[in-house]
Amino acid sequence: MEYASKLLENAVYEVSQLPGIGKRTALRLVLHLLKQPEQQTTLLAEAILKLRTEINFCSSCYNISDTELCEICANPKRDASLVCVVEDIRDVMAIENTSQYQGLYHVLGGKISPMEGIGPQDLNIVPLITKIKEGNIKELIFALSSTMEGDTTNFYIYKQLEGIDVTTSTIARGIAVGDELEYADEVTLGRSILNRVPFENSMKAN
Length: 206
Ligand SMILES: [Zn+2]
Fold this sequence. Notes:
Elements: H1 6-16, H2 23-35, H3 38-54, E1 56-57, E2 64-65, H4 71-74, E3 79-86, H5 89-98, E4 103-107, H6 126-133, E5 139-142, H7 148-160, E6 167-170, H8 186-194, E7 197-198, H9 199-205
Parallel strand pairs: 3-4, 3-5, 5-6
Antiparallel strand pairs: 1-2, 6-7
Family: Belongs to the RecR family.
Keywords: DNA damage, DNA recombination, DNA repair, Metal-binding, Zinc, Zinc-finger
Function: May play a role in DNA repair. It seems to be involved in an RecBC-independent recombinational process of DNA repair. It may act with RecF and RecO.
């Protein structure tokens, strides 16, 4: 594509680095911003910059948080003996939307994927195991998507728990194999957490 301006070209290039945004869409968005009052672009740029420089992750569950402990971990009404293991914060949001779950979360930050070069050391697995060894967690619920990477990650964590007194379960598969959690509707997702099954059973089924 030929651009009349280097500034335009740079802006289009940066926007097109976002997932799912091609050069054409990027150009449309950039031209849209140019038509808006300048203030709009300033607010957008400041919000992104602030997000990047000031965002914190909960020191316990790695959920995004503006405070040291996220609102969920800091809430005394939540059941701290129950921890739901999820891939990323979108899953926390999806499960929270069901209003069916009163425990805490642990956000791994991804799934083990040899294809993408993501190993256990790249995920928040060690802090999870450390937390469980402290002995206050009674049940760990695996709620990763049931893809091969999700199953591999579940199994890896499960193996790390050998000899530790903790119950493991996995969300019931109302959610079809390969589906991502965030796409499940709230009722299905809510039910699949309430109807969770022992993790050992899910392995036998495979
Ligand atoms: Zn937290």
